[in-house]
Design brief:
BirA Bifunctional Protein, domain 2, Rossmann fold, eight-stranded mixed beta sheet, 15 helices, 16 strands
Length: 429
């Protein structure tokens, strides 16, 4: 017997009972970004592999271990995008929309792919919403990105469950000086480092700061601090960011070990973290990448952005029981019709009502059925009200109106008064 078909490990279906929460979350974020003046951009899922090697860095875990890379029929090496920033930079360069110093405030949404060990909150296909801003170099735009995420947490009801961590990586020159000092210190304690950290010493030593190994963390207590190596420009920028966050009343902590896993970051880096989801604590992260556009072949262009993980934020909403009750209801009114004449009339009447109430969620029973079976489907739909149309109602040009979720008697409503009645009742419901 052939093996039953199933989804690839770590790539999950989002089922109909789950999508209302996803749509609520996505709509909330999209509305907020619209209000802050960000414009949506949509990039391909597949890019040339070289894009990610040049941007993320060839000695990062993502490029070395996690990317889904393959050759197409032309022999080109292609990769399913593991993150969105590089693809967005490629798009603005290709179409010249940041040329001449044009400011661009962009956002995107979609799936990303990394071959990791699947676990709760970490999947091989995962979804992100990201923002990228180009040609603004001051701490004010860094602050705006953080402020708008803070506002989003408030709208979602999760502010008390997240914490903002900040750090500054300085310029590439100051980071280079720090790297030399850090490697010198770690080499003196190399026998106490875990195997992964020893490997990173020669490839990406700043990532050692991000280790979860307890023994290596103990070694890092005495390590040089990045703040001591910051150049004056980066220090001024960071102080300006903190001043704006203080003015906005947004609490934060300085995390000197925060480096992020991508090579292109400079100056500001930040993460929103939670302790409500176990090991997968980062729900949104980003920072400044002023040299990335030039590194990818463009003219010097400053950039800053973030990405938030949709799966983790959905999980956080569920864990904190911050799922609005109304989003579980996909139907406002369920129309039951009995007999062919009533079914024809129900179709015509429902379309007239939809013309007058375009936002009304009205479902007509399909597949006929007895009075009992149709009412069972009406109740299962989650509708607030049932409409009943049979031969008797049709003869009188009325329709039965029955509350399903509360008190109230069934009554008859004239066809021409139905839309006005529903407008009042559904709003009140």
């Amino acid at each position: 017997m052939s093996k039953s078909l199933q989804a690839i490990r770590g790539m999950n279906d989002i089922l109909p009972e789950q999508t209302p929460l996803w749509r609520y979350f996505e709509a909330t974020v999209a509305r907020l970004l619209d209000n802050y003046g960000y414009k949506q951009i949509r990039m391909p899922i597949v890019e040339f592999t070289e894009l990610f090697k040049r941007s993320i860095g060839e000695v990062t875990d993502i490029v070395e271990k996690e990317m889904y890379t393959f050759e197409d029929r032309n022999g080109d090496s292609l990769t399913l995008r593991p993150e969105g920033t590089a693809a967005c930079v490629r798009a603005v360069l290709e179409h010249g929309i940041t040329g001449g110093g044009q400011t661009q405030k962009l956002w995107y949404i979609g799936p990303m792919f990394r071959h990791e060990r699947p676990q709760k909150g970490r999947y091989r296909q995962f979804h992100q919403i990201g923002c990228e801003v180009f040609n603004l170099d001051g701490p004010d735009i860094d602050a705006e990105l953080i402020v708008l995420t803070w506002r989003l947490w408030g709208q979602l009801g999760i502010r008390d469950a997240v914490k903002l961590e900040l750090n500054s990586l300085g310029t590439s020159e100051s980071r280079g000086r720090y790297r030399v000092a850090l490697v010198e210190y770690l080499l003196a304690h190399v026998d106490k480092l875990d195997e992964d950290s020893r490997r990173r010493l020669t490839t990406n030593p700043l990532r050692v700061l991000d280790t979860k190994n307890a023994d290596t963390q103990a070694v890092l207590v005495g390590a040089p601090k990045m703040a001591d190596y910051l150049d004056e420009e980066s220090r001024t920028h960071f102080e300006g960011l903190k001043a704006r966050l203080d003015a906005a009343g947004i609490p934060y902590v300085i995390n000197p070990k925060l480096v992020r896993g991508l090579d292109y970051y400079s100056k500001t880096v930040f993460e929103w973290v939670t302790d409500k989801l176990g090991a997968q604590g980062t729900v949104c992260a980003g920072g400044r990448y002023d040299g990335l556009v030039e590194q990818m072949g463009g003219k010097p262009t400053t950039g800053v952005g973030f990405a938030m993980g949709i799966e983790r934020l959905i999980l956080l909403l569920e864990t904190l029981e911050q799922v609005p009750q109304e989003i579980s209801r996909q139907v406002d009114v369920y129309l039951c019709a009995f007999g062919e004449a009533a079914e024809l009339a129900a179709l015509a009447l429902s379309e007239k009502v939809r013309d007058q109430l375009p936002n009304l969620r009205l479902q007509i029973n399909a597949g006929a059925g007895s009075f009992k079976s149709q009412f069972k489907k009406a109740d299962k739909s989650g509708a607030l009200y049932a409409l009943i149309l049979g031969d008797d109602e049709l003869a009188q040009q009325v329709i039965g109106f029955k509350p399903l979720r509360g008190q109230g008697e069934q009554q008859n409503i004239a066809f021409d008064a139905l839309a006005a009645h529903l407008a009042t009742c559904v709003v009140q419901g």
